[in-house]
Amino acid sequence: MIRESLHRYIDEEIIPRYAAFDKAHREDHARSVMDRAMTMGKAYDIDEEMLLTAAACHDLGLAVDRKTHHLESGRIIREDVRLREWFSPEQVEVIAEAAEDHRASAQTPPRSIYGRLVAEADRMIDPLTIIRRTVQFGLSHYPELDREGHWQRTLEHLHEKYAEGGYLHLLIPGSPNEAPLEALREIIRDEVRLREIFESVYREETERPS
Questions:
Q1: What is the chain written as a DSSP string?
Q2: Same structural domain, 38 and 140
Q3: What is the pLDDT of residue 209?
Q4: Residue range(s) defining the domain that contains residue 153
Q5: Tell me, what's the pLDDT at 210?
Q6: Per residue in 120-171, pLDDT tens?
Q7: What is the rounded CA–CA span in Å between residue 122 and residue 33?
């Protein structure tokens, strides 16, 4: 059971911070991670309030630095004195570690079930959404690239992260990401189809208002 006061704090003080981030990490992303983490968490003996808070705060570090945002998120959680209203120092530490451990490129597995659940929820592997967010990220962070440059960046990123042998690994047995990941890999293997999707997304993202 999530206490109303904690829910209100997350809704009014945490989630609005995502409005300042890139399109792939706005409020809808935070809420999706929260929903997916809580759904998967039903299969485990966990503290729902801790899991919800870790999911809500996992990307707050983007306000400081993209490359180390997971570590910055952990720092922000540890320094948030309001969280002491609901959690012990030990619980806050577990929440902070879960945020630190969510990054898909991490070299070591998450330290707790909370980290595994948040990391798996953060993946949200919908093939078309993944491709769109890859393009959105490129447009936001590499505005100097032309269309071909964005295509090459998209292709390289998808192969590096999602293709067979990529650094993304599923962390929860029976994860709902298993089938979508295989569907995405099929698209990646078919470069003609991938290029068609890229062209459609690129056109939509560059022709409509941001």
A1: ---HHHHHHIIIIIGGGGGGS-GGGSHHHHHHHHHHHHHHHTTS---HHHHHHHHHHTTGGGGT-STTHHHHHHHHHHH-GGGGGT--HHHHHHHHHHHHTT-TT-SS--SSHHHHHHHHHHH---HHHHHHHHHHHHHHH-TT--HHHHHHHHHHHHHHHTSTT-S----STT-TTHHHHHHHHHHHH-HHHHHHHHHHHHHHHHHS--
A2: no
A3: 60
A4: 127-207
A5: 52
A6: 999 878 999 999 989 999 999 999 999 999 999 999 999 999 999 998 888 8
A7: 5
Boundary of a domain, candidates 123, 155, 174: 123
The amino acid occupying position 146 is: D
Report the CATH number at residue 45: 1.10.3210.10
Tokens (6 digits) for 162: 């999602």
**15 with 56: CB under 8 angstroms?**
yes
Identity at 145, one-letter amino acid code: L
Q: How many structural domains are present in the chain?
A: 2
The rounded distance, in Å, linking the Cα atoms of 32 and 15 is 11
Provide the pLDDT for residue 114.
98
Residues of the chain where predicted confidence (pLDDT) is lower than 50: none
HEC secondary structure over 58-102: CCHHHHCCCCCHHHHHHHHHHHCHHHHHCCCHHHHHHHHHHHHCC
